[in-house]
Amino acid sequence: MDAEERRRGILELARRTGSVDVSKLSADLGVARETVRRDLRVLERHGLVRRTHGGAYPVESAGYETTLDFRTTRYVPEKQRIAAAAGGLVGDAETLFVDEGFTPQLIAQALPRGRPLTVVTASLATAASLAKADAITVLLLGGRVRGGTVATVGHWATHMLSGFVIDLAFIGANGISREHGLTTPDPVVSEVKAQAVRVSRRRVFAGVHTKFGAGSFCRFAEVSDFETIITDTALPLAEAHRYSLMGPQVIRV
Known about the structure:
Elements: H1 3-17, E1 20-21, H2 22-29, H3 33-45, E2 49-52, E3 55-58, H4 68-71, H5 76-87, E4 95-98, H6 102-110, E5 117-121, H7 124-130, E6 136-140, E7 144-146, E8 151-153, H8 155-162, E9 166-171, E10 175-177, E11 181-184, H9 187-199, E12 200-206, E13 218-221, E14 228-231, H10 237-244, E15 249-252
Helix pairs in contact: 1-3, 2-3, 5-6, 6-7, 8-9
């Protein structure tokens, strides 16, 4: 097995399982740990993985995106804390946009009950979870439903959004970086997110620490577009401060 074939195999394994471990790869491939580390450095330079202490995890890109089912298995306690913090930021907002994805789905469950809210979403799962709440009116965006995320995209979704003025948007992303802003792999998803950003008075980004420093294919917003970023405490305090210098308040939970 040559280096290119070995790196391709490492990347395929990372995408299939969600992460790889240097020691296990070394044993399974019959190569030195430093060889594996060198392979991971090459993959990271190409934007395909992010290295961690002792391993790496794949970066979502135009050619690779995790499904909603997969996201429900990763960093769940962190996502629950993030969602609870997001729910506390609603304030006096009456109209909300809740993005597609698992963390926004948890945010929807953390929204205050007992007072009128109108929630606009592209996520069928979020719409279904809120539909039975007495005080919440749910508006589901039309369009084509993507199988991997079970959310709507396309002209119908963006056109419907263009007719709203929304008080507060909870936005997710596949990557966020100080250099490239907020990104996602699919252009049609990017269009929906960008439209939501445009029509919202306040915007909150919610995502786990692994999103930070990662860049995907389509940029849909700048860091400075957001008043608040909510993430978990695994994002280093110094890095959180660098993002806060760009405008948003950064909350680590």
